[in-house]
Design goal:
alpha/beta; 2 domains; 6-stranded mixed beta sheet; 7 helices
Length: 224
């Protein structure tokens, strides 16, 4: 942060919801415009990009329900991450609304090994789900690796859905059904938000909204 201020940086895009607010305050106090993602409301020198997970999650739930699934597990991100909590709550509420039993609901981390550990726990319990919603593609990839090791067919036995649509998602075996984050639009919007804000005399920030969408690949199919 000190380097940004000393180097006369005019604007910074912070594309994570896990940030120490004191760091953000240091930038703003230094007169640097900031764009956050899913964190702060707009104010002077602060614009925010809110990614609407609701649309993509609703599409994913409708997709799974339409395939006949009635038992679904949720492997969410960490409980200290605002975005992870938003996604978990939306998944649980949406599944219950469609009479799908969201059990178990496990909080983990955005890592492959976290998804692997969570699936081992799921497979050790009775009443296995026919679908697993994962809070990120990395979690999903870890989950899929353990399912394969255990001889569980994907998607024949258990369908798997991720979130993000990272570059490895379509290279998974089978290719991963996922809720896509419009990454290029996030970057473009962040640049445009900084440019517009810094051109204003009062440097007042604004709020921008982007939607997610479901990308259906071969990791989901009809429930048995």
């Amino acid at each position: 942060m000190k380097l940004c201020i000393e180097s006369d940086v005019r604007g910074v895009a912070v594309m994570t919801s896990s940030i120490d607010k004191s760091i953000a305050s240091e930038l703003i106090d230094g007169g640097i415009g900031v764009v956050f993602c899913n964190v702060s409301p707009a104010e002077k020198l602060v614009s925010t990009i809110s990614i609407d997970y609701q649309r993509g999650i609703a599409q994913a739930i409708e997709h799974i329900v339409g395939l006949g699934h009635r038992r679904a597990a949720v492997i969410a991100g960490p409980d200290d991450n605002r975005t992870a909590i938003t996604i978990k709550d939306a998944l649980v509420a949406g599944l219950k609304k469609r009479d799908v039993n969201p059990l178990p609901v496990i909080s983990s981390n955005y890592r492959i090994d976290a998804g692997a550990s969570a699936v081992r726990a799921i497979l050790s319990t009775p009443g296995k789900p026919t679908a697993i919603f994962c809070g990120s593609d990395l979690i999903a990839l870890g989950a899929m690796s353990v399912l394969e090791e255990a001889g569980v067919g994907i998607p024949e036995d258990i369908s798997v859905i991720g979130i993000d649509d990272i570059s490895f998602a379509f290279l998974a075996r089978p290719p991963l059904t996922t809720i896509r984050v419009p990454r290029e639009r996030v970057g473009t919007t962040a640049f445009e938000a900084l440019d517009r804000m810094l051109k204003l005399k009062r440097r007042k920030g604004a709020e921008y909204y982007l939607e997610k969408e479901l990308v259906i690949r071969r990791s989901t199919t009809t429930a048995r």
